[in-house]
Design a protein that fits this description.
The structure is a single chain. The protein has about 100 residues and is of the alpha/beta class. Strand 2, helix 2 and strand 3 form a beta-alpha-beta unit. The termini are far apart.
């Protein structure tokens, strides 16, 4: 059995960080995979997309129901994280 959270509306950094903590807590307590249903998500910024990528990578959270725009923002955040590993410190936002 898995835990599914449906995320609707807009997702900004503070919301994404709260969602990340909630998923981590629930995943640790239940020892079950967590899935985020994002089909009703209208907007997310690049910072919150980065948090979703981190949740996917570090917690194994599954992202489902991504619309094209949302999927593209998440994909770009993932690529940005990969590229950051190869750049000198201080060349990317947030360093």
């Amino acid at each position: 059995m898995l835990t599914v959270y449906k995320v609707e509306g807009t997702l900004y950094l503070k919301d994404a960080e709260l969602l990340e903590k909630t998923c981590l807590d629930v995943g640790n307590q239940t020892k079950r995979p967590v899935t985020l249903e994002l089909s009703e998500l209208c907007y997310l910024d690049s910072d919150s997309a980065g948090v979703l990528c981190r949740m996917k990578r570090e917690q194994g959270v599954r992202l489902e129901g991504l619309h094209l725009f949302i999927a593209k923002v998440v994909e770009l955040a993932e690529e940005c994280e990969k590229a950051a590993k190869y750049l000198p410190k201080g060349t990317m936002r947030g360093d």
